[in-house]
Amino acid sequence: MLRTAALTLSLSAGLASCQYPATGPTARVKNGTLLGVHSDAYDQDFFLGIPYAQPPVGSLRYRAPASLNQSWHDAKPATQNSAECYGYGSDQWNYPVSEDCLYLNIVRPSGYENASLPVAFWIHGGGFNQGGGVDQRYNTSFMIQNAVKIGKPIVTVNINYRLSAWGFLSGSEELKDTGALNLGLRDQRLALQWVQENIAAFGGDPSQVTIYGESAGAASVGYHLTAYNGRDDKLFRAAIMQSGGPINFGPQLDPLGNADMYNELTRRTNCANQTSPLECLRALPAEQLNTAINTTSATLNVTNFMPIIDGDFVQKRGSIQLAAGDFVHVPIVDGANSDEGTAFSPSPVNSTADFEMFVSLSQEGGLPANFTQAILAAYPDDLSVNVVASLGNQRPGPPFGAQFRRSASYFGDVAFIAPRRKTCETWAANGLDAYCYRFNVIPAGIPAAIGATHFQEVAFVFNNVQGVGYIPAAVPPFENKTQSYRDLAHFMNSNWISFVHDLDPNAWRESGAWNGTEEMWPKYTLNQPMDYVFDANVSSYAEPDTYRKQGMQLINDNALSVYSR
């Protein structure tokens, strides 16, 4: 294990407090030369805080991101992380935030500057209202270290994009008419275009980009797969989606669907009665606008600003586009966690009456009464139907309730697992490679009643066995866990790397770097729909993707008519 001091220097990227020599790794991009920093501890080159767009401030606030329009003659330092974008939640606690935030980080293994390596392009999650590419839980140094070890070297890119009401404000004709909708997605798209123009300078191959993300990041990947009605702009050749995808986890609204929130924001900022409320919002000091956004009320909540159907970037609901084949036809990895719903189910759920109430009210305007009854029948109070794996007390007491597991099964399926299944089926039906999975591990610090819940696969995907970035907000995932947990992290990370490198998660096993007994990860087919189960307590294995079939079929058959997605 590496010494803590080396880990802190190399991984936390606390570079502002360190002095770096005037020489280091360089990359000549379109606008000039960037000067990075070399990590002796990891034998990697870091290029941090690289601008990929003009700062979205002043007159550029609430506009589509603008490409860089300046060049520089001297080497521009790229040795410090940027601030995260304004966001609202625990993901922002340990990092500075700013409106000037459209930056990305690139990490490469040293000695590969003249290579053409595959590229992994990470889009962070956080509900579209928090998070950032500089979050150290997404640090890629362990991944790149392992990639070299297994003979599959890659280059990684992590990005920031605008969040919440800064990046996903909607509800006004003025926003629609000026192309100012879904700005966070447009930020991501411009970053992908920047990579196409510049990644070769870092030893990356622009024709071998894989986009990957978790939760809102996975949903973002889905939006890029369906962007512009599925137009293939050749920005990526593959995609990985962890708990999210092209079928949204909630209803997709039209451009004026959030008019009440927009009106509340303009009222709070005294912009409502201006000739152009949008121009008024642009002219506000960032701190004043941030305060107005961050004052929660029944009408305006920072968590409710999401991508919407804008008729341009997002032209139709995801279920419509998948049914029509209107998506970029590339190989995918797509999966979810066994107990996604424990992070989203209301509680306590003590009775069928409680469950019925929560289901019927789970969507604005309520679900149709007959459909609610169909859901109750498809999700009975029967643990043999609703639980994939045995995870501690299956009928937990307060604050969860005796039927919490029943409720969590439904809410996890409706938000993540059923759309994941539909996506895998759609890819298979179109003759495309899809590798689908279920993550079935409870990391340290997660109660047994919560199980293998949302986000918990992230540390394994990044091979972050030292728990970098988790303290103080959370317990390091591998603390006091057996070696099998660390082995699984290496195994999962190697599968992800192999898919980025070869479009096949199994290919790394041919390199001699694997001596395990795990089954091979099969492609998903309609005749044999199989998930790969990642488990730290037994060897990972393939299983039929048929659990909770009735409930998920009901959800997927009504994705448009009931769930508006």
TrEMBL record:
GO terms for molecular function: hydrolase activity. Pfam families: COesterase. It comes from the Eukaryota. The keyword Hydrolase applies. The keyword Signal applies. Residues 25-529 form the Carboxylesterase type B domain. Belongs to the type-B carboxylesterase/lipase family. This is Carboxylic ester hydrolase. It comes from Phaeosphaeria nodorum (strain SN15 / ATCC MYA-4574 / FGSC 10173).
